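User: My instructor asked us to take a sequence, write out its structure as tokens, and then describe one feature of it. I'm not sure where to start. Here is the sequence I was given:
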Amino acid sequence: MPPTAPTTFRYLRRRLAGPAAPDGDLVRRFADRRDEAAFAELVDRHGPMVLGVARRAAGDFQAAEDVAQATFLALARRAGRLRRPDAVPPVGALRSAERWTPGRD
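Assistant: Let's start with the prediction itself. The structure tokens for your sequence are:
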């Protein structure tokens, strides 16, 4: 399947922007200044992986999208309290993805 226009634009934007900021810097920018662009970059970088984990756990695309959204919402709420902001997405977020999956204990 060919890449979609938004995927292509994100790729080009990253290539033209120069070296990417480390995840820890993006988390700190969001935590300190509520920098939405920093948070959007984190979602662009890690969203597909979080969604993949959620899809494998849920087996249902709609439920997986809800779980991925809840995972990033938790990151947004706790960004200032992360002990290791460089470890994004935190392992706990991925565990939460499985915990929030419908039909899981």
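For the description part of your assignment, you could build on this observation: The CA atoms of residues 80 and 93 lie 15 Å apart. Try explaining in your own words what that tells you about the chain.
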